[in-house]
Amino acid sequence: MSRPVYLDYAASAPLRPEAVAAEGAYRALPCAAANPNSLHTLGRQAATELERARRSVARSLGGGFRPADVVFTGGGTEADNLAVIGMAEGARERDRGRTRVVLSAIEHDAVLDLVAPLKQRGFAVSLGSPGRDGRVTGDAVAELLDPDVALVSVMAANNETGAVQPVRELGDAAHRAGALFHVDAIQAFGRVPLDLASADAVSVAGHKIGAPVGTAFLALRARAPFWPQAFGGGQERGVRPGTQDVAGAVALAAAVQTVCQHLEATRATVAERARRLEDRLCSVEGVEPSVTLPWEHRLPGIVSVLVDGLESEGLVLALDQAGYEVSAGSACSSGSLEPSHVLTAMGIPRDRAFGSLRISFDERVPEEDLERFSEAFAEVVTRLRSRERR
C-alpha cells in the first residue's frame, strides 16, 4: 500500500481546507500580530475578527447560547476542567449545601480524572452507570440526585463506543434537583444533532472536527454560577484569562460552520458506511460489536468491536504494519494495561474488553478504503490467531 489509511478520526481528525484557508486569510491581515485586547486600531480589528468567530460558533451551537457565552480555550480537556470544577465551586458558593458532583462512569479521562481534585476541594463524587447498551439514562442519574448535588456532567456521546446519550433527558433530571448540567460534546458535536436547551455548559474541541489542535471552546451560560480557575487579565469574561489565539478561533469557527452546514447529509453517508463496515468486521469468527444500539443512537463513523482471544494492542500494531491506523478503545488511554473503563462499566467481561478495537472516520474516508481495511482486518485476525495456537 502506497499510503497509510488513517482511521482514527475520533482521536484527532485531519485539518479541513476551510479551517486552513480561514486561518491563512487571518494571518495575512495586518492585525494578525496585534493583541485583540489593545485599544489601538489593529487591536480593535483583531478583536472584531475574534468576535466574528465567537458569533459564528454560538450560532452553529444552537441551544439558545449567545455569543457572550462562548469562551475560547486551548483544548477540550481544559474546557471540561473549567466546566466541572468551576461550575461545581460556583454552585457551592451560591448554595453551601451543594457539595456533591455526579458524573457518569463512561466519561473521558478529561472528566473522570477530576474525581480526586474535586474530593480535595471538599466535594463528594457519585458515578452513574450505563446499561449494557452503553447509554446512561435519566432514571439512572435521577437515582443519584439529592438537594446536595451541585453539578451533573455527562458526555453527549461516548468516544469509544459511539453510544449517544439522552442529553435533554439528563439535563432535565439535573435541573429538577436544582443542579447544574454540563455536556462534554467533544465527540458528538458536528456529527449528530444536539438538543442543548437543558445544558448550562457545553465543551467542544476543534481537532475532532478538522480545526487545528489546541482550539476549543466552552459555552457557559451567563446565568450559571462559576468560580474561575485562573486569574490575570480578565479576558473571556474572566473564565479563561490570557491573550486569545485569534487565528485559532477563526479556524475553529470555519470548521464548526462547515460540519454543521453539512451535518445531515454527512451523517447519513457516514452512518451507512459504518454499518456496512461493522457487518463485514463482525462476519469474522469471534468478532462482535461493542454496542448493538440502532444507528440513530450511535455516532456515525465510530465502529467499536470486540475480538475474542486477541489483545487490542497486538491488533493495532499488526494493522499499522498493514497500513491502517486504528486505536485500541480510546487513544488517550493507550499504554494502559487495564481494559477500557467504558467497556468495564458496561458490564463487558474483562477478557473480552482486552480485545476492543475502535475504527473511526468521517465523510472524507471513501468506501473503498473501508472495504480494503475489512479485508486486511480479517487477514490480521486469522494470522494472529494462528500464531496464538502455536
Structure at a glance:
This protein has 390 residues and is α/β, with parallel strands linked by helices. It has 13 helices and 12 strands. The chain folds into 2 domains: 136 residues, Aspartate Aminotransferase, domain 1 (Alpha-Beta Complex); 245 residues, Type I PLP-dependent aspartate aminotransferase-like (Major domain) (Aspartate Aminotransferase, domain 2, 3-Layer(aba) Sandwich), CATH 3.40.640.10.
Keyphrases for this structure?
Aspartate Aminotransferase, domain 1, alpha/beta, seven-stranded mixed sheet, Aspartate Aminotransferase, domain 2, 390 residues, three-stranded antiparallel sheet, 2 domains, 39% helix, globular
